[in-house]
Amino acid sequence: MANRLRVTVELRGRVQGVGMRPWVLRRARALGLDGSVRNVRAGLRVELEGTSQAVDAWLRDLREAAPNGARIEAVDIQPSPAVGTSGFEIAASDEAWARIGAGQELARVPLDVGLCSDCQCDLFDPASRRHRHAFVHCSECGPRASVIRALPYDRARTSLAPFPPCEACAREYADPTDRRFHAQTICCEACGPRLRVLQPDSPGAQTDAGAIETTARVLGAGGIVAVQGFGGFHLACDATSSQAINQLRKRKHRPSRPLAILVPDLESARRLAELAAADEALLCGPARALVVAPRRERGCTAIGLAPEIAPGTSDLGLLLPHSPVHAMLLYPPGSAPGDAPRFDALVMTSANHSGDPTIHEAERAVHELAPIADLILGHDRQVIRPSDDPVFRSAASGPIPIRLSRSTAPLSIPLPAGLEAPLPILALGGDLKCAPAIAVGREIVLAEHVGDLGSPASADALVDRVESLCSLLGVEPAALAMDAHPDGVAASLAAQLVPAGAPRIRVQHHHAHALACLAEHDMQGPALAITLDGAGFGADGRQWGGELLYVDGERCERLAHLETVPLPGGDRAAREPWRMAAMWLERAFPEGQANEDVAALGWHRRQDPGRLDALREIATRGVASPETSSCGRLFDAVASLLGVCDINRHEAEAGAALEALARTASSRNEDTPLPLPGAAPPQPEGSIEMAGVVRALVRGRCAGVPRSELALAFHQTLADRLAESALAASRRLELRHVALSGGCFQNRILLEALRRALENRECLPLCHAKIPPNDAGLAVGQCVAAIPGL
Question: Which pTM was predicted?
Answer without folding.
Answer: 0.94
